[in-house]
Amino acid sequence: MTVRKNQATLSAEEKRAFTNALIELKRTGAYDRFVTTHNGFIMSDTDSGDRVGHRSPSFLPWHRRFLLEFEAALQTVDAKVTIPYWDWSADRTTRSSLWAADFLGGTGRARDGQVTDGPFAYATGKWDINVRVDGRNYLRRALGAGVAELPTKAEVDAVLSMPVYDMAPWNSSSNGFRNNLEGWRGANLHNRVHVWVGGQMATGVSPNDPVFWMHHAFVDKLWADWQARNPRSTYLPAAGTSNVVDLHDTMRPWNNVTPADMLDHRKFYTFDTEPAAASQR
Amino acid sequence: MNKITRRQALGTTAGTLSALGLLGAAAHSATAASPAPAAPAGTVDEVFQGRRIQISPATGGGHHGGHHGSDLPTVRIDGRELHVMRNADGTWISVVNHYETFADPTSLARAAVRELQGAQLAPFAPMGGAA
Ligand SMILES: [Cu+2]
Fold first, then answer.
1. How does DSSP classify residue B63?
2. How far B31 CA lies from chain A's nearest CA (Å)?
3. In chain A, whose CA is at the least distance from the CA of B124?
4. Helix A30-44 vs helix A12-28: crossing angle, to nearest 10
5. A271 near A85, Cβ under 8 Å?
6. H or E segment at B17?
7. Measured between CB atoms, does A112 come within 8 Å of chain B?
8. Chain B interface includes A184 (CB < 8 A)
9. SS3 B116
10. Domains and CATH numbers, chain A
11. Do B127 and A43 touch (CB under 8 A)?
12. Cβ-based burial of B35 (10 A; exposed 0-12, middle 13-18, buried ≥19)
């Protein structure tokens, strides 16, 4: 069984296995297909039309399915690799070991935002940005520039205590847990982290930065944490809602998976914080 | 520069001075007649930080359709179209600043200029092709 671990606890060997698997998917072209898929949904998900990946109730199950597919691709390279999660409410500075040269590399240089250290620096020749919104073909970051502070534990706690999953009009103006977690409303959790990292992470082609997967693995964990804290709450809407994915509707682009299929992450993996994971290791 | 379309040409007329760079980085925007406060901003043609921003107002009625129609303004930076979207609360995002909202298309376009740091937008590709 796959166990997703806090990135801060990974050994040097685990970090290397993860970054090596990323680079291999990049080399084969598989990685860039995930970037293209994400950007396609970013650009077509609208508040007043069909919306699946973002600004809608299926934001969480869509990304869970997207990460599962990506994790399976990583595991074709190295069966031991799982997606680590980045708890940005705890590891919240540019000095975190996450941004060290032996893991993701750090922020970009002032002149052009280019990341110049670590395995994803342009000079390595192994991490060209091919799916892009502008002419720049190197990984960029501007940690803490677009917004100064990452969300705090108190802000996360307040969102986890919201008992209703989502509400009409089921878009970026909704109240409820999903939209406060996605960040179009309230303290702004998920969106703010994209802006804090900056560079490609602030754009529609955000998966170009490997931290995308670790950020979303934590967002995914927060969904599981919310379920544990609100056992009587469930995914909404249930049925008959236009433009959005109801509980038993299928989600594009797979068309064979529903939010209901994605509700229990333990069918696929556990988190290192869960007792079940400890007993299986 | 790309072939000038009729819509671009109309925008150019509204802001010829700034198009010629005579106003430098100072904002110059001519707002077309706006029947309602919720209507998109009007025509803009300005040079901001050395980049030409052109905004042609939406030609369709209202903002309840899909994003492909003319119910959204066309935003160009140095002639390249910037993919923009309007949020339900009236704020704006673009593919360059996707996770942060802006009050109007002009501030959205200027944010994109800052973010681009001189780079050109990739050809407009709604399904996210490579540049
Ligand atoms: Cu995200």
1. S
2. 26
3. A133
4. 80
5. yes
6. helix B16-19
7. yes
8. yes
9. helix
10. 2-271 (1.10.1280.10)
11. yes
12. exposed
Structure tokens, A3:
């166990």
Look up tokens 């706690």; give the residue.
Answer: A157
Please compute, for residue A274, the number of CA atoms within 13 A of its CA located in the half-sphere on the CB side: 18
Chain A, chain B: beta-carbon pairs less than 8 Å apart: 107
Consecutive sets of 10 residues in chain A, 281 residues long: mean pLDDT of each? 95 98 98 94 89 95 97 98 98 98 97 97 98 96 97 98 98 97 97 98 96 98 98 96 96 96 97 69 40
Task: Name residue, tokens 């934590």.
Answer: A218
The alpha carbon of A203 and the centre of ligand 1 are apart by a number of angstroms equal to 10
pTM above 0.90, yes or no: no
ipTM: 0.91
Are A131 and B129 within 8 A, CB to CB? yes
Q: Is A35 on the interface with B (CB under 8 A)?
A: yes
H/E element, B1: none
**What would the 3-class secondary structure string for chain A be?**
CEEECEHHHCCHHHHHHHHHHHHHHHHHCHHHHHHHHHHHHHHHCCCCCCCCCCCCCCHHHHHHHHHHHHHHHHHHHCCCCCCCECCCCCCCCCCCHHHCCCCCCCCECCCCCEECCCCCCHHHCCCCCCCCCECCCCCECCCCCCCCCCCCHHHHHHHHCCCCCCCCCCCCCCCCHHHHHHCCCCCCCHHHHHHHHCHHHHCCCHHHCCHHHHHHHHHHHHHHHHHHHCCCCCCCCCCCCCCCCCCCCCCCCCCCCCHHHHCCHHHCEEECCCHHHHHHC
Which letter, b or e, does each residue of A90-103 get, where b requires 16 or more Cβ atoms within 10 Å of its Cβ? ebbeeebebbeeeb
Q: Which residues in A lie closer than 8 A to residue B102 (C-beta atoms)?
A: none
Q: How far from the centroid of its chain's Cα atoms is residue B116's Cα?
A: 14
Picking from B87, B92, B99, B124 by the largest number of A CB atoms within 10 A of its own CB, the best residue to mutate is B99
